[in-house]
Amino acid sequence: MTPAAISQSSAVQILRHASPLSASAGAAATSAGARFVAAANGIAVADSAGGPTQRAKAKLSEALFKPNAPSVTETKIHLMKRLGQELGIALEDHETHASFGSALRAAIADIRMKPGGTFVLAAIERKLGFDKLGFSLDTFVAAIIDPKGDDGRKVDAALKKDLGLDDGEDRKSGVRAAPAAVRRDESGLYGLVSS
């Protein structure tokens, strides 16, 4: 076939007329593509059509399918490592969390004995966010040493509240409970259970 015959082909003519590329169609495709890429990367994108229903669907989807959300234990370990860095003590150098907590307690006692030590410790509390979480540095160290004690329960409750978890449910347990909020109606469609 010659190039002139190709351009006269009926299939080519039909395709040209069926999908004209206009600026608005290209912009819509780009916008949809941008939203898809943003959603795939976990970035929230403002959508003009996003009403309360769409936001509710997004929250449900996040609860069901976001496996990388931190748990209370992961958050506590992260805070332990950050506190150790602040005091120059590595978690990996200790065989148990109790021995790590004892080393932290000794380092804190040494800092407290120095002039201005209480200001240094208060700055560490603020830097790690303990003041916003609602517990002190000493409470956190006591929770490291005895996680099942009163201080351990207090730290766990504060971290659960900060992570948005309910009544002792870890995020991984909460994900298992999330499908209870979804029910199938009489027509066979799935929807959120209204409270």
Q: How can the largest sheet be summarized?
A: 2 strands, antiparallel
Please report the distance between the alpha carbons of the first and last residues.
Answer: 67 Å
Number of strands: 2
User: Measured on Cα atoms, how large is the radius of gyration?
Assistant: 28 Å
Helical percentage: 55-70%
| Class derived from helix and strand content | mainly alpha
Estimate the strand proportion. under 5%
Order of helices and strands: HHHHHHHHHHHEE
Q: Would you tell me the overall average pLDDT?
A: 74
- Helix segment count? 11
Globular, elongated, flat, extended or rod-shaped: what is the shape? elongated
Residue ranges: pLDDT <50 for 5 or more in a row? 21-29, 168-177
In the residues, how many domains can be counted? 2
Query: Spatial order of the strands in the main sheet?
Result: 1-2
